[in-house]
Amino acid sequence: MRHRLAALVLCCITTTSMAQAGTYEPSIGVSFPSDIAGLTLDGRTEFPQKALGVVIEYSGGDRTRGALYIYNGGLASVPADIDAPVVRKHFERVIADLKAWDGKGKVRMTQAVGNTERTTTFAGCGPQFIVREFEIDLPEGTLASASYLTTMKNNFVKLRVSYMKSSAQGPQAAQKFVQQVRHLLGGCR
Question: Which UniProt keywords apply (predicted)?
């Protein structure tokens, strides 16, 4: 019995250590490091429904968080063009899901930043995203949050990045996270 318990503890420690070393996402062929833009890898979770895919989560100080959701949404084919109608319609659903949190529990969406979504215009290597920004009232303050969506290898790749609005480093940390994820997705050197 003692040996089984020791093996179980060793298993879990090794698994945790491996997660801290980074994680590989086979659906898009990308390795994610243990740290992106000062945010530490919390882990990778595979959802039981194949259409929901996986989430890879990172966190840092001041409630700064970054999460990547990689999934096909149950579609047989996800277009490579973020301007494709099916991708735009999916992004509308992503935003509708966020807005549905408004008024539930202690979360209250205070306002969408800007009137509509926009498409990023990053220079250099890596994909562009459709993006929409929000501010969310929490008991401890206002959370600035943004949802980004692109497509890759027949999957949607959604980023959610958030930080406390009162954080002086929050906007730069969030932007740096998005840029570094973008370079990973693009295989940039």
Answer: Signal
User: Could you tell me how far CA 151 lies from the centroid of its own chain?
Assistant: 13
pTM of the model: 0.83
15-49 pLDDT, tens digit each: 333 345 899 999 999 999 999 999 999 999 999 99
* Among 156, 159, 147, CA closest to 72: 156
Note the pLDDT of residue 61. 80
Name the CATH superfamily, with its identifier, for domain 24-186.
Answer: Mog1/PsbP, alpha/beta/alpha sandwich (3.40.1000.10)
Contact at 8 Å (CB) between 146 and 173? no
- Residue whose token pair is 């179980």: 8
Which run of H or of E encompasses 95?
A: helix 85-100
Q: Which residues in the chain land under pLDDT 50?
A: 1-19
122 with 186: CB under 8 angstroms?
A: no
**How much is the pLDDT for 189?**
80
Q: In this predicted structure, what is the pLDDT of residue 136?
A: 83
What order of strands is seen across the sheet that includes strand 35-36? 35-36, 39-46, 54-59, 65-71, 155-164, 141-152, 130-138, 108-119
Length of the chain counted residue by residue:
189
Cα torsion angle, 99, 105, 107, 111, sign = positive
Cα–Cα dist 181/129, whole Å = 11
